Amino acid sequence: MSGFVEKPQPVQVPGLIHLHTGKVRDLYRDEAGQLVMVASDRTSAFDWVLPTDIPDKGKVLTQLSLWWFERLSDLVPNHVVSTELPAGAPADWEGRTLICRNLRMLPVECVARGYLTGSGLLEYDEQRTVCGITLPEGLVDGSELPAPIFTPALKAEVGEHDENVPYEEVARRVGADIAAQLRQTTIAVYSRARDIALDRGIILADTKFEFGLDADGESLVIGDEVLTPDSSRFWPADEWEPGRSQPSYDKQIIRDWLKSAESGWDPKSETPPPALPDAIVDRVRARYIEAYERLTGLAWV
After folding, report:
1. How far is 248 from 233, CA to CA, in rounded Å?
2. What percent of the chain is predicted at pLDDT more than 70?
3. Number of CB atoms found within 10 A of residue 276's CB
4. What pLDDT digit, counting tens, does each position of 120-140 carry?
5. Residue 52 to residue 276: CA distance in whole angstroms
6. pTM of the predicted protein model
7. What is the mean pLDDT of the chain?
8. What's the CA gap between 222 and 280, in Å, rounded?
9. Burial readout 138-158 (b: 16 or more C-beta within 10 A, e: otherwise)
């Protein structure tokens, strides 16, 4: 069992209907039928939403996504309509709220990998494949792949693991034409972002995207968030060393602490995880902001 240690109560705003509380985001619908997506400061690890927030995290995710959306707009349209706050929304929503098109979201996590690590490494060590794609011998944790690969997963409910699946399963679920578009667009977006990040001294090891279909039911639109430390593995390029776990800009600090003797918690247990110490919270917040500043070249205010 996993999920929320304590599920938050949604903020009630006149004119908005609360639809869903996710690991990080709260989703509403406005009177025009548009979606209102609010990125909280919640964080998750080991399929648990933790009891400790990371200050400013939701704003970093939102602002970084907007920065990336601008740089990807010639490759794929995105779901953002406006960043203006809905009338009556709390002041804390400023900088973390997006008004979005209502898409028919596809039930696939579109993962692109340029480097071998995480669940891909586990499968490779057992079978020399990732999602059914055969890879060369001799790769280790952190190895760069010969070319980026599309390794999709099926979306899971909060508290459950996403399930890596072969491409053929995606085609079966969404149709051959849409599956081909998903694979092509995922690799194109990853490749663009990888090059931009590397110019700024950051390796984009892997990332995941979510896509939906527009009103015509045929055109892909990228939704949710994009290329943030929550959905991507970012590594400092000058510290990259295959054969070990890489320093990162994501939640690895939290995962490492939760697995440590200091936390006193077993990730394999059904016991909810403990609160994070202030020192860990401060380190994670600093890493998120550093990723934002290095990628965008802008100072976090």
Report:
1. 7
2. 97
3. 23
4. 999 999 999 998 899 999 999
5. 6
6. 0.93
7. 94
8. 32
9. ebebbbebeebbbbbbeeeeb
Can you tell me the distance from the alpha carbon of 136 to that of 129, in angstroms, rounded to the nearest whole number?
Answer: 9
Which band of pLDDT confidence, cut at 50, 70 and 90, is reported for residue 295? Answer: very high
Contacts of 223 (CB under 8 A, 6+ apart): 78, 79, 100, 103, 105, 210, 211, 212
Residue 145 has pLDDT above 90, yes or no: yes
- Paired residues of 110 in beta bridges: 209
* Per-residue tokens: 62: 């939102």
pLDDT score at 116: 97
Instruction: Answer yes or no: are the C-beta atoms of 86 and 99 closer than 8 Å.
Output: yes
Superfamily the domain 104-239 falls into: ATP-grasp fold, B domain (3.30.470.20)
What distances in angstroms separate CA 296 from CA 160, 195, 222, 224, one per listed residue? 33, 13, 20, 19
Q: List the chain domain ranges.
A: 104-239
Can you read off the two tokens belonging to residue 154? 């099926």
The single-letter code of the amino acid at 51 is P
Specify the pLDDT at position 157.
62
Instruction: Report residue 114's pLDDT band, with 50, 70 and 90 as the boundaries.
Output: very high
Query: By mean pLDDT, which of 147-156, 180-189, 219-228 is the weakest?
Result: 147-156
Q: How far is CA 92 from CA 88, 180, 244, in A?
A: 12, 40, 40
